């Protein structure tokens, strides 16, 4: 990792570490990243970008000049929001906001995007590069909001990455194919008619219907989806009733659907609807089903993945590039950009020597500080490679 030492002189290194720790101390939830956005604006103003603007509420976009600004720009995205979790890392710069925590490493993602802005200012790409600090990744809505703001119109390629403690600092996953799943949610309302618990024949009991439906929905993955295609149907909540001797009118179930290809994604939604409606009828109930689409599956196309791989190899050497191994079925709203713009999403190793592979969204999760520099250097270089190739 000797190139990293050259790229980040002590003053820049110190400024980025300080920025990351400041963001970590002051985490903010999706869509409420006011202080975070203000801090990032100040940090980006230091590189004197060609343009610096707020987008999508608490998003920030800086345009870094390339050698030829008439070329189509490329983009580097870092997400900036935190989670409603109480931090238990014991870090000296732990969250000062009770119940809110950077448990997904977006403090580091925001910081490495600022780091990339510095590197691309010092050594410009062929064309301009937009540094995109995106709010509300955790709700799956921020990327679409940035696209809707039209700030990325005309962007020819986009790159982003996520910290990952399954991999050591210095290791990078940069490959084509699926990297994250779609993340859709559903709500099923089973409508019956309530009554006395002692006289169930007078009622249409939605609780018995809900219990049967929970089991029936498990057959979607086990009996309907091709076993070679990854898929998840999870029920996350079941609510009904208020007293031991009262049969309620209704039961409500909510859950999440995950898939890595469009056909499987569609099948999951269709089957939830079909099974809920027909299972309800068996119990003399009516089902109302709503499905809320979240981010689509994240699938890296081959050419931009090749650019990202070349960039990672240039910064870290070929040995740094490692395979993803098992796909993580979590969602990532970077997928919304990839529906419109070619690009690549990477995983950046964030486990310090001797550390544990703590999962993201754990109250003990933190990325190793050194991952800031890996992410910044690899994303800046990916932007340069893409800008040359386009
Ligand atoms: Ni995340």
Helix and strand arrangement:
Blueprint: H1 2-7, H2 10-25, H3 34-45, E1 51-55, E2 59-64, E3 74-79, H4 106-122, E4 129-134, H5 142-148, E5 157-168, E6 172-173, E7 177-180, E8 184-191, E9 195-196, H6 206-224, E10 231-240, E11 246-247, E12 250-259, H7 262-282, E13 286-292, E14 298-300, H8 302-316, H9 334-338, E15 343-351, H10 371-389
Parallel strand pairs: 3-4, 3-5, 5-15
Antiparallel strand pairs: 1-2, 2-4, 6-15, 7-14, 8-12, 8-13, 9-11, 10-12
Helix pairs in contact: 2-4, 4-10, 6-7, 8-10
Nickel (II) ion binds next to loops.
Structure commentary:
With 390 residues, the chain is α+β, with helices and mostly antiparallel strands. The protein has two domains: 2-180 and 298-389, 3-Layer(aba) Sandwich (Aminopeptidase); 184-292, Alpha-Beta Plaits, CATH 3.30.70. The protein has helices at 2-7, 10-25, 34-45, 106-122, 142-148, 206-224, 262-282, 302-316, 334-338, 371-389, and strands at 51-55, 59-64, 74-79, 129-134, 157-168, 172-173, 177-180, 184-191, 195-196, 231-240, 246-247, 250-259, 286-292, 298-300, 343-351. The radius of gyration is 23 Å and the shape is elongated. Bound molecules: nickel (II) ion. Residues 104, 106, 137, 162, 360 line the site of nickel (II) ion (NI).
Summary, kept brief:
35% of the residues lie in helices and 24% in strands. With 390 residues, it is an alpha+beta fold.
Which properties best describe this structure?
390 residues, alpha+beta, Aminopeptidase, Alpha-Beta Plaits, 2 domains, 7-stranded mixed β-sheet, 4-stranded antiparallel β-sheet, 10 helices, 15 strands, 24% strand, elongated, binds nickel (II) ion
